[in-house]
Amino acid sequence: MARKSALLVVDPQNDFCPGGALGVPHGDAVVPVLDYYMEAFRRAMLPIFASRDWHPPQTRHFTTGGGQWPPHCVQGTKGAEFHPDLRLPEGAIIISKGIDPQEDSYSAFDGRDNSGTPLLELLRQRGVERLYVGGLATDYCVRYTTLDALRHGLEAWVLADASRGVDLKAGDSERAVAEMRRAGAKIATLAEVLAELGTVGQEGAD
Ligand code: VGL
Asked: What are the tens digits of pLDDT across the range 144-202?
């Protein structure tokens, strides 16, 4: 049996791109790469999820509520919209997180689709065993999401060429990658993933 795969693009939102409220250096560089990945998963007819930070105006996550971050990705604002070059295929499932004003919700596994179903349940419903994760930011949402995926027994692949980090402290992203690897994640780039997708349906044939 082929391992059922899904793609999760994490928080490719205006506020995490240069010029945004919490701009990740070169964060916008992930967008065209994520577009390639999404096109490949669409062609392979595999599920595609896109998470977004979707905060209320007041939350403990923001400096204004005693938290660590300047206000960003407030529901309904331009900053919370996906980057305009992100080409979400039809059928892609949007996962909103950070809605609870008491929670940081870095992980997409804290998020739900628009009918309120949690990400893990959506993955289980689709029989997903392997999750490919890329986006913003390597050292926060990609990291927490990947570690949660592993904790829930999924195989997790981090898309190195489609992720960028905040790097509040120099080296944070490298440390995050090392931590995810130690926890069991694989690190991959587009060429490797395309090769894997090419084998979908053929694995275990021999
Ligand atoms: C994120 C910092 C604060 C992220 C979210 O999406 O990685 N980082 N909130």
From this structure: 999 999 999 999 999 999 999 999 999 999 999 999 999 999 999 999 999 999 854 44
Q: Between vectors from CA 15 to CA 55 and to CA 111, what angle results, nearest 5°?
A: 35
Q: What is the mean pLDDT of the chain?
A: 95
Check whether domain 2-200 has CATH 3.40.50.360, yes or no: no
Instruction: Select which of 15, 17, 35, 97 is catalytic.
Output: 97
- Pocket test of ligand 1: the residue of 63, 141, 145, 167 to mutate, having most ligand atoms within 8 Å of its CB, is 141
Kindly report, residue by residue over 70-109, the tens digit of the pLDDT. 999 999 999 999 999 999 999 999 999 999 999 999 999 9
| DSSP per-residue string spanning 146-187 | HHHHHHTT-EEEEEGGG-B---SSTTHHHHHHHHHHHTT-EE
Rounded CA Rg of the chain: 16
What is the spatial distance between Cα 189 and Cα 74, in angstroms, rounded to a whole number?
Answer: 31
Which residue, among 39, 38, 18, has the nearest Cα to 28 in the 3D structure?
A: 18
Backbone angles phi, psi at 121, to 5 degrees: -65, -40
* Nearest residue (CA) to ligand 1, atom 9: 106
